[in-house]
Amino acid sequence: MTSAHRGPRTAWRAAPAGLLATPALAWIALFFVAPVGLVFWYSLGRKPGLYQTHANDVLTLDRYREALGDTFMTSFAGTLRIGLAGTALCLAIGLPFAYWLAVKVRPHRRFVVLALVLVPFWTNFLIRTIGWQVVLSPEGFASRALQSLGVTDAPFSMLFTRGAVLLGVVYNYLPMMILPLYVALDRIDGSLREASKDLGANRWRTMAQVTLPLARPGIAAGLLLVFIPLMGDYVTAAVLGGARGTMVGQLVASQFQQAQNWALGSAMAVVLILVIAVTILATALAGAVCTWLLTRRRRSELAGLAEGSPA
Amino acid sequence: MTRGWRPGMSGRPMADRALNVWGLLVIAFLFTPIAVIVVYSFNSGRLLASWEGFGFDAYAAALSNADIVSAVSVSVRAAAGAALIAVVLGTLCGYALARHPGGRIGRLVTALLALVLVTPEIVSGVALLPWFVSLGVDQELSLFNSGWVRLVVAHSLFATAVVTFLVRARMQGMDSSLEEAAADLYTPPLRRFRLITLPILMPSVLAGALMAFTLSLDNTIISAFVQVSGSTPWPVYVFSAVRAGLRPELAAMSAVMLLLTLAALAVVALVLRRAGGSKDAVNALSGVR
Q1: Which of B40, B89, B130 lies at the smallest CB-CB distance from A262?
Q2: Residue A139 dihedral angles phi and psi, to the nearest 5°
Q3: What are A125-174's pLDDT values in tens digits?
Q4: Which of A38, A301, B96, B280 makes the best surface tag, with the fewest CB within 10 Å?
Q5: pLDDT by residue (tens digit) across B114-166?
Q6: Which residues of B are less than 8 Å from A13 in CB distance?
Q7: Beta bridge partners of residue A51, listed in sequence order
Q8: B148: number of CA atoms within 13 Å, CB side?
Q9: Does residue B273 belong to the interface with chain A, where contact is any CB pair within 8 Å?
Q10: Distance (Å, rounded) from C-alpha B289 to C-alpha B283?
Q11: Which CATH number fits domain B59-286: 1.10.3720.10, 3.30.300.20, 1.10.540.10, 3.40.47.10?
């Protein structure tokens, strides 16, 4: 009975279900695709006068030339440095933590620890950054504590340094690294590690050749989720870095908010997107090459161990 | 799958202990600034960072400060609007993606939503500001001159992506036979959606709504661009206060909002737990698929 009815009815069901995605598609097209497209368009224009923000009467690449000037390049380099260092530190801190959470914490406690990781994630990141400002400020309690312990005599000020900005971004984006790493590590069947041990591999070999390769999608997702928003972040730098922590985001923001030069601001935003995309592609390429080399080496090892096996 | 200590593997307990210490240190690190804000919200002094004494003055001052109350109210109203839009669009879209994953529209929407999730906030912000200005001023759609509308629309984009992926994850884990049975019994589509599909989706919809709400409440960068003076949302108010000088009132209001967010989080956690596992939420949130 069903087979006779299912054919036409499935088709009838399929049409509205596919259509259900169109409102979201229209919304995204109208308020994401179109505006971002507009940014690309503006970046080819110019700022015609003091009171106008943009004009596209003449199409030119001059804004890009302007955006790639000395001040901006210095800032880009600084942002890229902070971005790469911050992402690397997040991975270095987050990987052992996610491993601990996925493997060592007992299952019934895991939910609680996960919730603890999520709490800061859901607290306003600006407020958390201000919390660090209080900690690091010369009149804050960290400085007082260090002085009363006799570690330093003068008020201790780490505020408004590159180090403070690095601390801030690592802090702010660490949960974005931990979550995908945890999900990836949690998916790995524990018996694979056991098998590796039973076959005589020590802990480090198991980590390097079983756990980490299997966690690769999580590592990639974590790197992306930290690096991309970090490169666009200017709030952390403004709160903890003051004038020293100038990030590209601040320059872009000031073109839109103070200078009212949308053409130049758009060009800088496009350059930012390109820098992010190129860095990600380069990292992905490097990762792929490393994987290929390692796999090839291991294959030749295996082939040497067991001749004739199709490894 | 016993992972206990085994003889012959010396050094193992030490490595475990090191990992335990590391885990606790990271949790302490994550909570340090939050604890500082909560503690300093009881600072009775005039400046946030210099501790004068314990008192509830900051709470009283925060609740009687018209600017602070208005900023929080703008944020809450924008978050409610954004959550509503995200839930409607995201539920429909997530459902469609789970049931028809191969469709051309589906693939396009998935790619675009993923793009929304990974676009730096500053790019979305600088893109939306000129767009709203051209819609509101050049096209004379005065709707887009309203600060509330701008915030709602701007915040709804990321939130729609989150809700979509949450709902899709939930729907993918569900057998479609219930819906098919209802269809075989000649239940009309809308009634079927209301009676069968929606109850199945409810946990993810609810979780998505609360997440959309909190995400909107916390958004600083996009809000700073699209806001209209006169309806400044709370994070943007705080950001401007960073330059003007931080007072304990901000910490007090933040502590109140933290409490509210935690209550919302507890509800999400309960719902997700009852629905069977926290992984869907984590996956959707972290964009891992």
Answers
A1: B130
A2: -95, 5
A3: 888 999 998 888 877 767 777 777 777 666 667 778 888 899 999 999 99
A4: A301
A5: 889 888 899 999 999 989 988 988 888 888 888 999 999 999 999 999 999 88
A6: 183, 189
A7: none
A8: 10
A9: yes
A10: 6
A11: 1.10.3720.10
